[in-house]
Design brief:
With 146 residues, the chain is of the alpha+beta class. It has helices at residues 2-31, 50-56, 60-63, 75-83, 130-145; strands at 35-40, 45-48, 90-98, 104-116, 119-128. The longest helix has 30 residues, at 2-31.
């Protein structure tokens, strides 16, 4: 009986630690300044953090299950390169995102392949680089006119 009680205590403690770790990971994803989206191999959105909501203008429940091509039309092209490998790789590219309003904007995309048993998934970390591009453009114009 004592052994059963000890096992239950350690099981409870392990579950409590896992729950704490899970809550911490959710907090990191929810409060990061960059957008984080996870998609399955077919491009269907599985997670969409608050930074993505601000960036694209959609609420999470409006995009879960939808294809990411609506937000990142060239996403699939970048996934195909990663999908053909066995390793968990990272790819970084600059592509165009599409807001809910239809406005296109430059996005820096960090794409990682996540091996998950028999199911492949991908994590996209996104940064809106509109301001950076505007500053670059103004600097080029200033150089040309100066």
């Amino acid at each position: 009986m004592m052994l059963f009680g000890a096992l239950n205590f350690f099981t409870f403690r392990s579950l409590k630690q896992k729950l704490h770790t899970s809550e911490r990971l959710h907090a990191i994803v929810d409060y990061t300044v960059d957008g984080i989206i996870t998609v399955d191999k077919g491009g269907h959105i599985q997670t969409f953090n608050p930074a993505c909501e601000a960036m694209f203008g959609y609420k999470e429940d409006e995009v879960i299950g939808k294809n990411i091509k609506a937000l990142l039309p060239l996403f699939q092209k970048n996934v195909i390169d990663l999908g053909n490998t066995k390793e968990s790789l990272v790819k970084r590219v600059e592509i165009k995102g599409v807001k809910q309003s239809g406005e296109k904007f430059p996005v820096y995309l960090g794409l990682s392949k996540i091996p998950h048993g028999h199911k492949e998934a991908f994590t996209a970390v996104l940064r809106d680089i509109s301001q950076q591009k505007e500053i670059e453009s103004n600097l080029i114009k200033a150089k040309k006119s100066g």
